[in-house]
Amino acid sequence: MKSKNSSNKATALIDANNFYASCEQSINPYLRNKPVVILSNNDGCIIARSPEARALKIKMGTPYFKAKESLNRLGVAVLSSNYSLYGDMSKRLMNLLKDFSEEIEIYSIDEAFVSIIRPKDKNLNPWARKVRCLIYQNLGITLTIGIGENKVRAKIANKLAKNIDHSAGIFDLVRIYNENDYLRKISVDKIWGIGKQTSNWLEGKGIKNAKELRDMDENEITKKLGIIGKRLQLELKGNECLK
Amino acid sequence: MKIPLLSDSISAGFPSPADDYTEENIDLNEHLISNPFSTFFLRVKGDSMINSGIKDKDLVIVDKSLTAKPGNIIIAMIDGEFTIKRLSIKNNELYLKAENHNYPDFNFKNHIDIQIWGVVIYSIHSYL
Ligand SMILES: [Mg+2]
């Protein structure tokens, strides 16, 4: 384990999987285990898919009129969006999460950053498993939980939790041996706080992933991106969030 | 909204003399619901639970945070539908039982697709 960060504070990014579709499947047994897509206002295009619909390779953003025939053929349930349901479930989710955290910052309808204290043995997996289990029982919603020393790393950990099959929806970036291998999997444009322009500039410099950005010359970043870039790099290195 | 609670319990045999108002006020939401963020309302359709006192069109209050125990009335998802049943145990096997002889029991062993959704904590019946 790394020892550079001995603090007992941690930040987790908790994110609901397929939130809109999960809300619908959670209150409608007919939709459980079925492919479900949800359309934008006025039934324009596909804005959410259940895992079963993803498995059928149905694309996000497809206009409904184009997809209609194949959705029919594949037996996909097509729903109009129901924002009062998603809002209600979001409120429930955030309130339930409060009981499991020191502090919570709601980031979007289905995402929150939470501050937590690491137990003596440093292992937050039991905590994360409990949160996932409780939210699944109470709301029928599956969560992905990424844990790090700060928001930037919690966000990266969340991405890793989603992409790694054996993660069981939980990834703690602080408690791994081969951090570099994992950081290499995160391309710079996927790092929180890096926009299109910045990622183009970084790629031009040969900086392609989170590991390379973490190790990049500090002065070069600061010259180009100012204090924001410097902070971002410090967070990538595992410093706690700077206020 | 809070509504005052009369101090004496109602005798179901003979009427008791009228009592004063108490200071206690009841908010039905607070009174009935201890876990608001995991509680849902459902409308009952049909008479499969009639012997338990739950009737067609009654409103049931369901708490999903509770773990169902034998004896509880629960909402389950069976074959793509919600159903309300009593969770019971017979010869060490779990069943979902209707409270009406015209409906079959569901044995968990024979049904792959049973999932308990939540525990019924109250039912609300209208007498009008
Ligand atoms: Mg999400």
Summarize the model shown.
In chain A, 44% of the residues lie in helices and 17% in strands. Chain A has 243 residues and is of the alpha/beta class.
Give the overall form of chain B: elongated
Task: Work out the radius of gyration of chain A.
Answer: 20 Å
Number of strands of chain A: 8
The share of residues in helices of chain B is under 10%
CATH architectural label of the largest domain in chain A: 2-Layer Sandwich
- Outline the low-pLDDT stretches of chain B: none
Ions, cofactors and other ligands present here are: magnesium ion
Give the SSE string of chain A: EHEEHHEHEEHEHEHHHH
Distance between the termini of chain B: 22 Å
Which spans of chain A have pLDDT < 50 for at least 5 consecutive residues? none
Measured on Cα atoms, how large is the radius of gyration of chain B? 18 Å
Roughly how much helix do the residues of chain A carry, as a percent range?
Answer: 40-55%
Q: Identify the CATH class of chain B.
A: Mainly Beta
Describe this structure in words.
The complex is a heterodimer of chains A (243) and B (128). Chain A is an alpha/beta fold and 243 residues long. Chain A folds into two domains: 8-176, Alpha-Beta Plaits; 182-236, DNA polymerase, domain 1 (Orthogonal Bundle). Chain A contains ten helices and eight strands. Chain A has helices spanning 19-27, 51-55, 64-74, 83-98, 125-139, 151-163, 179-184, 196-204, 210-214, 218-236, and strands at residues 9-16, 36-39, 46-49, 77-80, 103-108, 111-117, 143-148, 170-172. Chain A starts with 8 loop residues before the first strand and ends in a 7-residue tail after the last helix. Chain B is mostly beta strands and 128 residues long. Chain B has one domain (34-124): Umud Fragment, subunit A, CATH 2.10.109.10. Chain B is built from one helix and nine strands. A seven-stranded antiparallel β-sheet of chain B has the order 3-4-9-5-6-7-8, with no helix packed on it. In chain B, strands 1-2 form a two-stranded antiparallel ribbon. In chain B, a hairpin with a 2-residue loop joins strand 6 and strand 7. The longest helix of chain B is centred in the first third of the chain and has 5 residues, at 28-32. Chain B is elongated. The two termini of chain B are 22 Å apart. Chain A binds chain B through residues 27, 29-30, 32, 91-92, 95-96, 134, 137-140, and chain B through 37-38, 40, 64-65, 77-78, 80-82, 115, 117. The complex binds magnesium ion (MG). Residues 15-16, 19, 110 of chain A line the site of magnesium ion.
